[in-house]
Amino acid sequence: MNQPAYKDPRKPVGARVRDLLRRMTLEEKAAQLIQNPIGRDTNPNNVGPDHPFDPTIGSVLSFTGGAAARNAFQRMAVEGTRLGIPILWGYDVIHGWRTGFPVPLAQSCSFDPSLTERACRVAARECWADGGVDWTFSPMVEVGHDPRWGRNVEGYGEDPFTNGVFAAAAVRGYQGRRRADLRKPGRVVACLKHFVGYSASEGGRDYSYTEISARALREWYLPPFEAGVRAGARTLMSSFNCIDGTPAVANRETLTDILRGEWGFDGFVVSDWGAVSQLRIQHFSSDPAVQTLAALTAGNDMDMSDDVFRNIPALVKAGRLPRRVLDEAVARVLRVKFECGLFEHPYVPELPREKTCRLPADLDLAAECARGCAVLLKNEKGLLPLDPRKVKRLALVGPAADDCPALVGTWAAMCAKNHEETPSLRDEAARFFPNAKIDYTPGCALPPEGAPRLRTVDFVEGSILDPGLPPDRAAIAKAVRAARAADVVVVALGEPGWLSGEYKSRRDIRLSPAQEALVDALAATGKPLVGLVAAGRPLAFSETAAKLDAILYLWQGGSRAAQAAWELVTGAANPSGRLAMTFPRAVGQIPVFYNAQPRSRENLFDYLDCPHENDPWLPFGYGLSYTTFEYGKAKAAVRRGGRVEASVTVKNAGKREGAETVIWYLSDLESTSTQPVRRVVGFEKVSLKPGETKTAKISLSRKDLAAMQPDGTRRFEPGEFELSASLRASARFVAN
Ligand code: BGC
Known about the structure:
736 residues, alpha/beta, five-stranded parallel β-sheet, 26 strands
């Protein structure tokens, strides 16, 4: 009876939006475009001033009070305001809520997007039920070419295609496979970020300028976003950077012409934290009214935390902001709120945590993901896997051996970094080596989270990892004694969990001097030496790596990282990760990535002081297994209509079951505008029993073959191409 149309769930979303919009005052509309934290923001990344709670605002972010408190605030909006518009609750749920999954960069190394989809499904359920989160600021889908940039850890590596596949998987995991799924309990709205080009920051320095050609934008930075939009992502976050003189937050070409015009996106865009008022720092304008106009007219809809959108009513009244622009932005925000069922279900159930989080299946999935993400970098003389029956004395050494936060990494949400919830390598070791005496001694330490901001004076011995501390000779000597007494030494190295992420760029990405000294001393014992590395970025430690017999790169694997590590070390599982980002030999080689343009001279060294190799230390796609895979001949044929069909057989030629990722690379050998030496056009992870053979296939359209032009368009040009399967087998073909 007399229920307004917008409250009627049987009405189509468009009609509900229109009905609500026409009832709203200017102030109510403006408020829907505002996102703020409640009170003091407890997110250490985003420390800001106090904000009094306004129940008419569109969204709250980073609220850590839990479901019941969230519901109490929500009640103020739903029952205490004129129109009862529920608030959308946003949070950075990047790789899990309470169950910690591997960091996204690690996830992409699994080359198994189904793991990401399932992990995001769990994260969605946990954050919704436990934290009252409706909207996650994830996935980050920025192509990263510079491992010094701290935020690569949040994305899926250096390849645009792989980023796109994982973007789509994450969106499906958070939101569901169909738009209607978003209404189901335990689904959250996804947010593709940061739109666009932030990862191109000069020198890998966070928040820096980006010079991006039309071509690079289309070839590298935009495709993952397009894939995420096609998968149904309902929101995007605009970025901090400035592309070729236009701040991303004021970039109409990307936010409107491309995103909405070309891709048909009809969700909404939120600006990044403070990015609108940051226009002052970028010397665009220090006038909040101008900042507001620039952001809104470019295509941002909601403003994260600046509070400058409070200017909207005055701007409309003064005739400076067209009502149409405001109404479109508000309509987009409301549409998403209707789509996710917020008007019907504004509250989340207040269930005990044990019923919603860290269920046994969630933790099993965390272990499965961590196993799938780790990459075996080296295995001299088949040292791994270790046979636990034969190991009688194991020396467990290194600063990451008993460090829980090092296994979790940045943006951990509510994932506890303690021994109970995230067992360390040391905690789990005995379970896997029941017959061994385990001697643990760290040899050196990683600086704890919350260490004071590092200043210039802390840069001793060329690294910030041991601020003020040279290698501790006594600690190393103790580790050496343990090594001498052991059958095998496992040394756990890496960077602290807090040293990658936002505002965590590093100029030096080697291991710390203390860790290098520790490895030197351990290697001198002549004992078999296994390195386990926990890190949030590719570390350039090829020289130290040469002294280790085997290396398993764990990344930051989350709640069950240690279990997964030992399963891999002991052969209960076979490593199958492949690098989604190139590992440089030295910092001076950066940027170095697989899909570079061809150079203009052959047979010359890139650097005179590195006269052995031009190649990076470890290329994209690299990773070993305990078994071996044989590739047959690759075949490629051009069908009528222009489709290219290619296939290759892969055989498990070893004695263990294993999984091989067949990565298909396309090289365009003749084009009027030069193309990358190769680019990924597909991949498939195949599990193979010993002796088993499977065929991997790919089918490409003319569009897939089209060459990128300087203006950012793609055009098919007839000529010769090459398709390579993991650089192990290739076939050439001519397409006309
Ligand atoms: C980051 C975003 C994040 C936001 C909210 C910003 O500083 O750049 O990635 O989603 O904070 O926490």
